[in-house]
Amino acid sequence: MQTEFLASCISILGNDFVITKEADQYPYLIDWRQRYRGKALAVLLPQTTAEVSSLVQLCALHQVACVPQGGNTGLVLGSVPDQSGQAVVISLKRMNRVLAIDVANNTVTVQAGCLLAQVQAAAIEQHRLLPLSLASEGSCTIGGNLSTNAGGTAVLRYGNTRELCLGLEVVTAQGEIWDGLRGLRKDNTGYDLRDLFIGAEGTLGIITAAVLKLFPQPRAQITAFTALENPDAALGLLKHSQYALGPTLTAFELISDFSLQLVLKHFPQLQHPFGRSYPYYALLEMSDHESESHAIALIEQVLEQAMNDGHATDAVCATSISQSRSLWKLREHISEAQAKEGKNIKHDIAIPVSQIPRFIQVTDTELKRAFPGCQIVCFGHMGDGNLHYNVSAPVGCSDTDFILQQTSINRIVHDHAHQLKGSISAEHGLGMLKRDEIKLYKSDLELSMMRAIKVALDPQNLMNPGKVL
C-alpha cells in the first residue's frame, strides 16, 4: 500500500520532490530547538495549489496523515511529524511567489511558502509596509505565520497576523480548494471561514495563499531605550506613551537586566546603552507620517516627561538607522543568547497588561523559593501583554537535571497566568508540546466546541493529527 501511495505521489510531483531517504528528510523532521525529531513516510514538496489538492486527496484515499510545514521555525512541535513514521510532511517551501500587489487597495496576495522577509521587501518596493515583524522573519513563512497567528513586535499598533489577513486560499481535508482570496475589509456574508484556519496550526486544512493588508510606509521610525526600576515603572511609562503618542506607538518591549546581560555576554560586539545596569528596560518604537524631526521631538518630550514623573530613570533615543538597529538587536538576540547559555524552560504567556507587574513579582518569588538559584529571563511584548518568561538552571546545575523540573516549573508559571485571566500560549500556538497542558486551563465546553469543529472539517483526522487537540 505504501509503495502504491508513494508511486502516486511521484506521479504528481516528480521523483525529485518526493523525499524518502531519512538523511535527506532530516531538516523537515527536527524541531527548531533541535530537541525533538520525528519520522515521516515521505516529505512532499508541491509547487502549486493543484498539486497540494491532489496530494491531500491521495492521503485521504490511502488514510495517510499529513503534516503541513512552512519554515519549520515553531517552538511547540506543531510543524514536525510524530515518531510513527506513517505521516507525510507537506512542505510549502516551493510555493513562494508574490502573486499580486494592489497599491490602491493596500493589499498583497502571496503564496503560503513566501518568507516573511520576502513579502516585507516586496511591500517596501511599492512604498508600503507589511508590519508583521518577527526575529525569524528571514526563515519563517506566511503560511506558518497564519497557521500560528504569529504576533511579533508590532502587535500593539497593527495586531496579530489574524488582523493583517483579509482572505485565504485553503486546501481542505478532503482535498477541495476553497478560494477565499478576497481583499475586502467588509464582508458580512455569514461565518468567517478565514478565522477558522488562522491559528489552527494546520489541523483543519492547508493554507496555500493569502491576501494581507499593507499600510503606507511611515516617513520616520524612531527607537528609544529606557532604564526602569521595576515592571510597575514600565506600566506607568506605557500608559504615558500611549496617551502622548496614540497610534504612532508601534512597539513597547520589556527587557529584564538578566536578559540584557546574556546578550552582552554572547554578543560582545553590542554595547550597553547606558554603561551601567538597571533592573529593567523598555524598548519603544514610534512611527510617524509627518517627518523625522516631528517624530524625534515627540518622543523626546515623552521621555523627558517620563523621567520627571519617575517612570524612567534614564533614556537614549537613536539618532540614526544604525543606532536603531543596534538597540533592536539587544532585544532580538535574547533568545539566541539564552540558547548559547544553555537549555532553558520557555513560556509564551499572555496576561492583561495591567497585571504584568503583579505576575512578575508573584511568579519570580515563588519560582525562586521552589527552585533556589534559578535564573529568570523575562522579556517580551509588554504593549500587548505577551511575555516570554523563561527559566534557566541555577549556576552549577546541569541542564539535564534542570529540564526534569519542567512540569513543576510550568505549573507555577501557567497557574499564575491563568489566575490573572491569561493564556499559556500567546503567539507560538499549542502544537504537540502544549496540547495536554491546555486541558488544565480550558473548560470542557471550550474543548468540546473545538473538537466539534475538528470533526466537522477533518472527520478522518488526517490533518496534522496529535496537534492542538
From TrEMBL:
Boundaries of every FAD-binding PCMH-type domain copy: 36-217
Family as reported in the entry's similarity comment: Belongs to the FAD-binding oxidoreductase/transferase type 4 family.
Keywords assigned by UniProt, alphabetized: FAD, Flavoprotein
PANTHER family on file: BLL6224 PROTEIN, D-2-HYDROXYGLUTARATE DEHYDROGENASE, MITOCHONDRIAL
Signal sequence annotation: none
Matching Pfam families: FAD-oxidase_C (PF02913), FAD_binding_4 (PF01565)
Protein name as catalogued: FAD-binding oxidoreductase
InterPro entries: FAD-bd_oxidored_4_C, FAD-bd_PCMH, FAD-bd_PCMH-like_sf, FAD-bd_PCMH_sub1, FAD-bd_PCMH_sub2, FAD-linked_Oxase-like_C, FAD-oxidored/transferase_4, Oxid_FAD_bind_N
